[in-house]
Amino acid sequence: MSASIYPLANPKGEKKLCEICQKPAKLQCTKCLVTFYCNLDHQQADWTSIHEKACPLLVSINTPVPSGTLSDQNHHHKETLKKQKCLIEMAHLEARKWVSMKRFQDVLPAALLFQHWIMRVYGSCTVELVPAYLLLAQANIGIGSLSQAQEYLSKAEWIVMKTADCSHTVLHQLHRTLGRLHAAMGKQASALTHFANDVYYAIEMFGLDSIVTSGGYFLMADVFLKQNKPDIAHSLYTEVAGSWHTHLCKLMDGISQSATQPDECFNEVQCVEADQMLSCILEFEEQCVKPRPEQLTMLAHSLAMLWLLRDNYTKALEYGKKAEVLIQGVKEQNRLRESIHNLLQHAEKNMNETANLHTADCNTH
Question: Gene3D superfamilies this protein is in (predicted)?
Answer without folding.
Answer: 6.10.140.2220, Tetratricopeptide repeat domain
